[in-house]
Amino acid sequence: MSAAIGKLFNPASYTKAWGNVATRAQAYYHPNMRDNGSTFLWHMMFGVSVVMYTGNYVSRSYPLVQETREQKRVAMKEYYEKHGGGDHH
Predict the structure, then answer these.
(1) Transmembrane stretches, by residue range (predicted)?
(2) Where are the domains of the chain?
(3) DSSP state string for 45-82
């Protein structure tokens, strides 16, 4: 267990892992790019789309969703206080 914790806080383990990823990516994409394959392009487009969608949702959409939920929660609480009933079925 302590070895795993040691790896977690050791920057060399992250450097080694990134080196492995870079080596595997080079071995996979380099021949494909030299043959004018479109796999790299599609993978990059997909990756950029995922990053942009996630960033947009986290920074813009999610706070609006939370605000709307809070407004509905307050409105329903006021409604139940005024008209009776509750949030039960």
Answers:
(1) 40-59
(2) 1-37, 38-89
(3) HHHHHHHHHHHHIIIIIHHHHHHHHHHHHHHHHHHHHH
